[in-house]
Design goal:
This protein has strands at residues 2-3, 14-19, 22-28, 43-50, 57-64, 73-74. With 124 residues, it is an all-beta fold. The chain has a domain at 2-74: Carboxypeptidase-like, regulatory domain (Immunoglobulin-like, Sandwich). The strands form two sheets. The chain has a four-stranded antiparallel sheet, with no helix packed on it. A two-stranded parallel ribbon has the order 1-6. Strand 2 (14-19) and strand 3 form a beta hairpin. The protein is elongated.
Length: 124
């Protein structure tokens, strides 16, 4: 799997092999753009490839007979993702519902807005 313009490999693409309305196999391409779908019976399939930042690709009529090689290219597109707002507090215990175990954001992380609590004045 490579970029159409640059020829560089596309890792992390979702690849589905479809027969009629049934997904016969699905994998994610490696960092070098390669992928292997096992357990397919000989026949004709559609291959559907998706990756954020690239136009989805569907190739019909891919004939599989034994070990088959399939090469595909994808076209890069501008993608507008949903905004992520990160808020928190300093020094205090997390409030109910603010924990997000396993939360991660791809390669780029940008804090959109920092909110701080107003300081309370002390009475003496």
């Amino acid at each position: 799997m490579t970029e159409a313009d640059k020829g560089s490999p596309i890792g992390g693409a979702n690849v589905q092999v479809v027969s009629g309305m049934t997904i016969s196999g699905k994998v994610t391409s490696g960092e070098d753009g390669s992928f292997r779908v096992t357990g397919l019976v000989d026949g004709t399939y559609a291959v559907v490839i998706t990756r954020i930042g690239f136009a989805a690709r569907r190739v019909e009529g891919v004939a599989v007979k034994g070990a088959t090689t399939f090469n595909a290219t994808m076209v890069e597109i501008a993608a507008q993702l949903n905004r992520v707002s990160v808020t928190g507090n300093r020094g205090g215990a997390p409030q109910k519902g603010t924990r997000c175990p396993g939360f991660s954001v791809g390669r780029e992380f940008r804090v959109i807005r920092e909110q701080s609590r107003p300081r309370r004045s002390r009475r003496t």
